[in-house]
Amino acid sequence: MRKKLAALLLLLGLALSGCGEIIRVEAPAETPAPPAETEVPAANTMTAYRADGSAVVLDADGDGTWRAADGALYYLGEDGVLRARGAEDLYLEVPAAPDKTDTAIVRQDGERFETVIVLEGMEETVRYEHIKNMTIGFEMDYDYEKFVRRQEADREVFVSVYDESENPENYLELSYSAQDAETTAAAIGAELSKSYEIRRDDEFPLDRAGKCIRIDASADVGGKTMPDQLQMVYIIPAGEGCIVATAHYAIEASEGFGRRFHYLMHTLAVIDRQG
User: Fold this and answer.
1) Going residue by residue through the chain (275 aa), what tens digit of pLDDT does each one get?
2) Contact (Cβ atoms closer than 8 angstroms) between residue 242 and residue 235
3) Taking the complete model, does pTM exceed 0.70, yes or no?
4) Which of 44, 137, 222, 227 could form a disulfide with 60 if both were Cys (CB 3.0 to 4.6 A apart)?
């Protein structure tokens, strides 16, 4: 009996050894994921910011200058502000939201006061007078030491004290158009295009008047050269019509009078017309 049991166990062991081989199946090696693509900005471009915080991509143009898509050529001032003739300033960082405290101040017609503006990176104290024009429908402040105010039946003109009154180079004129802002802007743009390469901004923000259409005429037709006289036109919605404010200035005065007109326009507010 013991011999039969031993033989049976031997046969069983042989059978198990023959069929008990374990076959290992190797899992396929995991393919490493490709590295995530990281967008690396080109060394010859940089992003700058307008006063309202919107971004502008600039391309290096050589000699430390930068060119915008609209052709404006910028240089970096010592105060860290990018400037171009006939174009708005750009900043290396998003500017802080402007303090609106002053815009809420109610001033009387003829009231005079002092404020501070920045020209070429330097602060300058200016003396303003608050005025109202009920015929055109606006109120604003102007630098009475730098400009002579000339009131006419259908317009207001602020002429540089350094210019000939009958043949000025640097002046701001304002008038009212009974046509809506879009129609007026189209007509002005068509006329300016005969002599200038224009740039149009349909939502240019003014501190007290809100968004307006701004037309920049600071390059000759073709955009390759700059004319002696530049224009910046603001078409501001006012009821069913609009107010047209046109800044005229010589090319060499774009950093001076051009900036002064910029500040004056941000003091303008639309009011009800009378008469």
Assistant:
1) 455 544 544 444 544 444 444 445 455 555 555 554 444 445 588 888 887 778 888 888 887 888 888 888 888 887 788 888 767 889 888 776 555 444 457 899 999 999 999 888 889 999 999 999 999 999 999 999 999 999 998 999 999 999 988 889 999 999 999 999 999 999 999 999 999 999 999 999 999 999 999 999 988 888 777 888 999 999 999 999 999 999 999 988 888 899 999 999 999 999 999 86
2) yes
3) no
4) 44
Q: Are 203 and 185 in contact (CB under 8 A)?
A: no
The closest alpha carbon to 260, from 154, 182, 162, 166, belongs to: 162
